């Protein structure tokens, strides 16, 4: 079966066309902020559409109501109350499945990636924020609709303001923007430091800080480790809550691998409640890379047709 | 079927003998700290045992390994690595089921109490600490073994030291001991305050502070509200994670009802991520009172025989 999956972020989208479990085309679209979110989704679908496509899946960052495929709200996406399923079904004349982007990425990792062979797993997406998904008995556990929004667990009562408007959410300490904030701080305090010279005068990005760390810069490495430790502390919270066998770490920052996940894994052992008597979970980096969200959306779309 | 259930705390235990779903005898035993934990369990079972009893269930505060019914460790209980199931089966010559006390209380509330008729629910026990249980599809979700230990989610990075040895766990802010700590602080700063006169010179307990609040003392009410709000903030974290339909609040302090649960419920609406678009969960006080843990243990014991 030929299906399309798209993953819609705040500033870009990624689309795939799949033939059963195989990606046959992939396309990255920069989203023009002047486009409505629905037009952005359409454009992204169009970029890989052909006559053989039978269904479309959409993953989007934020709260999606499963019942009617409506995107309700998300702090990183413009627009709210978007009736994506209805609108896209009308535009493309085929079944459309809509889900939270962490859910779609988790489905992809479960079927084709790092969670293959597990019936229970947590998927934690670390990027602009922290999202996630709970896999129980081989399926997504959604609760009422929005389970897995643990990026907004408050871990620091008087902490930094979060994009969601609350203070001290986990993602204020562990995310791409958190890493950028730390790097900016160092660069502004010490413009002659090695990291300042490495990052230069251009806009600092999380990727650039990780690259500097991986290239051996000690300061960059300390910052990445700091974010990795804050990430691991939050994983310890999830372990106290779920006692999972395996945690898959994905997302733009999570996918960079050991420079972030290593410190998280190490802090987890010490930070978790009952660490001495627990079997610590396996913490594994996602395997499908940035396309996971789109791939999972496509797999869900295929499920709509079967 | 006639079965016995016991709930073992740090300083006291509660035992019930049940005939199917009906409690026919109940007994409260103060635990002498000189007794070994296994002898304390035996004594508690003995207090309601008769010749018709076919099985024994044990609920205990801490980490229990389901596979072999071993109590591994808990911050509020003396002893660790207790092979309760094996030892008690030998002593009483009948099947023994061992579980975490919040799990047993949740089972009781699910079958006979406030969660009746729900297939998915969170049970949150608020007392000396915070424990809990996850009900999914009508059964306990245990993860590897120890799911629901959310009292040890770190909500305040530089916060107070917890009984578990870590800092800023949810239960450092929301628990009986947290309420006592606040009351002591007020009384020591202002020994002429109304609450100081109400509580007198005897040892301050959480129950006494709640009683003073319910009797109309404004300061006591403010303290109980403060703990209730910290409790509600943590519930908001659980809602972001599970998006549950219903949360049952039990335990010694949780069971006092609206003076604690009211402020928690109110703060939840404002503190939860995506509160505007979420259907807020029902937060209901447990119905079975302090015997819930023992009743659930008995129900699990009956399941061992059937």
Order of helices and strands of chain A: EEEHEEEHEHEEEHHHHHEHHEH
Largest sheet of chain A: 5 strands, mixed
Number of strands of chain A: 12
Radius of gyration of chain A: 19 Å
| Tertiary shape of chain A | globular
**The top level CATH class name of the largest domain in chain A:** Alpha Beta
- Individual helix count of chain A: 11
Helix content range of the residues of chain A, please? 25-40%
State the low-pLDDT regions of chain A, or none: none
Structural class of chain A: alpha/beta
Polypeptide structure, described:
The first copy, chain A, has eleven helices and twelve strands. The relative contact order of chain A is 0.16. Chain A has two domains: 2-107 and 290-305, Nucleotidyltransferase, domain 5; 116-287, Nucleotidyltransferase, domain 5, CATH 3.30.420.40. Chain A has 306 residues and is α/β, with parallel strands linked by helices. In chain A, helix 7 packs across helix 8 (218-242). Chain A has a five-stranded mixed β-sheet. A five-stranded mixed β-sheet of chain A has the order 10-9-8-11-12, with helices on both faces. The first copy, chain A, has a two-stranded antiparallel ribbon with strand order 5-6. The mean pLDDT of chain A is 93.
Key terms for this structure?
homodimer, 306 residues, alpha/beta, Nucleotidyltransferase, domain 5, five-stranded mixed beta sheet
Structure summary:
With 306 residues, chain A is of the alpha/beta class. Chain A is built from eleven helices and twelve strands.
